[in-house]
Design goal:
Length: 252
């Protein structure tokens, strides 16, 4: 008992063990389609996030560990109660109707981006990543690497620490062809597709998901916009190295 005070002083002077850094919580809006599935699999399957919530209209049973659902009470994000997340990812790819799980998920429309971003900010999100599809060759050169419209400016003005906008060239949609004249007209118009530079062509979903994951890990504070040409070039080789070089060039 005589040594008890000495042992107590020794214990008090010891350096406490270092605590593991707290991992961020992730929420995904639009985890549908081939791209949404790849983004969800890559981000939720890694060790970067403590948990992942996907926005849904109906209760579903997630197939991956660490994934839960947040049910939205209405289609307008302005009416939702606040959630709890640190990082938000927004995707606009429509669900594949032959996937029962995807029909239950909530998919945003482009015009809902400001309201959705505002809800994420109210829910504690400090980093938001938005994957924006756009028609090939339609975006003016001056806007490819910056904020392109008022909605994007509104998102950037909400006070996020990091805003990541990834532009991805979308594949042209094929509608129903009625009759030989319409088929001939569509064939003639399709010639214009060959005039679109290869660097503006669509990129496979796994590569876009890899680009988003690397950007979320490496991007510093601020607003970062990746043009479709950059995403295409990154997909041709080491995506992570390309993202690191892009961000280094931005800060330089």
């Amino acid at each position: 008992m005589r040594d008890a005070p000495f042992q107590a002083l020794q214990a008090a002077s010891r350096t406490p063990p270092a605590q593991a850094p707290t991992r961020a919580r992730l929420v995904i809006a639009g985890a549908t389609g081939a791209l949404g599935n790849e983004v969800l699999r890559r981000l939720a399957g890694g060790q970067q996030f403590a948990g992942t919530q996907v926005l849904a209209r109906e209760p579903i049973r997630a197939g991956l560990r660490g994934i839960g659902t947040t049910l939205v009470p209405a289609d307008d994000p302005a009416q939702w109660p606040t959630g709890a997340a640190d990082t938000g990812v927004v995707l606009f790819e429509p669900p594949r109707l032959f996937h029962d799980r995807e029909r239950a998920l909530w998919t945003p429309l482009p015009q809902q981006l400001p309201a959705l971003a505002h809800w994420m900010r109210r829910s504690g999100v400090t980093t938001i990543a938005v994957v924006l599809p756009h028609a090939q060759g339609r975006l003016p050169e001056a806007l490819k690497r910056g904020l392109a419209n008022l909605d994007e400016h509104a998102v950037a003005a909400l006070g996020f620490e990091r805003v990541l906008i990834v532009r991805s060239a979308q594949k042209p949609r094929r509608g129903e062809v009625r009759g030989p004249l319409e088929r001939m007209a569509r064939w003639m118009l399709s010639i214009g597709a060959y005039l679109v530079p290869s660097r503006e062509q669509p990129v496979r979903s796994p590569k876009i998901a890899e680009f988003v994951a690397a950007a979320l890990q490496l991007a510093p504070r601020g607003i970062h916009v990746a043009a479709s040409e950059l995403v295409w070039a990154a997909a041709q080789g080491d995506v992570r190295a390309a993202v690191r070089a892009w961000l280094a060039g931005e800060s330089g």
